[in-house]
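Record type: monomer structure entry
Structure origin: computed from sequence
Chain ID: A
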Amino acid sequence: MTNQTYQTFNFSIENNIARVELNRPDKLNAFSKTMHDEFYSILKSLTRENDLRCILITGAGRGFCAGQDLGERKGDKAMDLGETLEKGYNTNLRILKSIRVPIVCAVNGVAAGAGANIALNCDIVIATESAKFIQSFSQVGLVPDCNGSWILPKLVGLARAKAITMLAEPVTAQKAEQWGMIYRSVADDDFHTEVDKLVQTIAQRPTLALANTKELLEKSYANTYDEQLDNERDVQRLMGLTHDFKEGVQAFAEKRKPNFKGS
């Protein structure tokens, strides 16, 4: 079991599952300079973990993340927001995307601005029915960031992406599920039970196969039909040599539950 103390996060690794909880509940977990720095430290540490099976990202309190803490900007005469992105969000999101194990985001309340898009950058998003996703950038004269302008059209289509970003309309968790923005919304009272069930299920799956599956799916956006067929062939060749494939076939033949090792 791994635990390390942070000011703005609760972080632990137990039974090969990393749990990362944004922990500024009084600010709806809005990102501060300290939070960016600590998120970087946590993500970098996760890239060095060889036995991880799943990562869970969630928020403390009544919200997931309200985006950037604009309170830190009071009194600033001029701000280079490009530098804020490059040294904060963009750096951390690039590390997040480089992590190969499945990443689950449990959205426990409002996810606004950068907070909404951080969630959508994860592999599987599950949310409480009371949660809302808000592309709030236009309300303060900004454009979507944290990869929102790239991922939203692919998830919900160009027409809806334009509307929800330009109008800053809140999208309920139920509607987000219907539109394909997230995987699932669940009743608030069942949320923690369902999140834990999902995380435990993923942790018992063949981790290496899941890592390659998400990489294939993400690369498919840029590949041609033939390139994707070739990629599938090359990756499947490697998968056929793994312990987990042999175990899966043997378990199927013996009519038992497989014991995957993620290798």
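Annotation 1: The chain has a mean pLDDT of 94.
Annotation 2: The longest strand covers residues 9-14.
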